[in-house]
Amino acid sequence: MFDRNIFAERVKEMRLSKNLKQIELGNILSLSVQAINDIEKGRKITTFDSLVILAEYFNVSTDWLLGVSDMRERR
Q1: What is the DSSP string of the chain?
Q2: What pLDDT was estimated at residue 3?
Q3: Tens digit of pLDDT for each residue in 30-47?
Q4: The predicted structure's pLDDT at residue 72
Q5: Which phi and psi angles does 54 have, rounded to 5°?
Q6: If you compute the radius of gyration of the chain from its CA atoms, what whole number of angstroms results?
Q7: Residues 55/47, Cβ–Cβ less than 8 Å
Q8: By the 8 A CB rule, do 52 and 45 touch?
């Protein structure tokens, strides 16, 4: 089941693993720094399109990002 807090933690973890600033991730997703901050704090979720972009950019599964699965790699 989707867990907003796990999603928030994993987005931040992935961003930091690539040494990206929030503004840089925001540029990739066409979102503001505030929107990225809200996602990383669990106050906001993202669109389906942005979820797919995140998964592709970080080469992880959408299920893992959403906290539905512990399998990180995409199939």
Answers
A1: ---HHHHHHHHHHHHHHTT--HHHHHHHHT--HHHHHHHHTTS----HHHHHHHHHHHT--HHHHHTS-S--S--
A2: 84
A3: 999 999 999 999 999 999
A4: 72
A5: -60, -50
A6: 11
A7: no
A8: no
4 Cβ contact list (under 8 Å, min separation 6): 42, 45
For the chain, which residues score pLDDT lower than 50? none
Structure tokens of 17?
């693993």
Quote the CA–CA distance of 33 and 2 in Å, as a whole number. Answer: 24
pTM: 0.90
Type of residue at 65: L
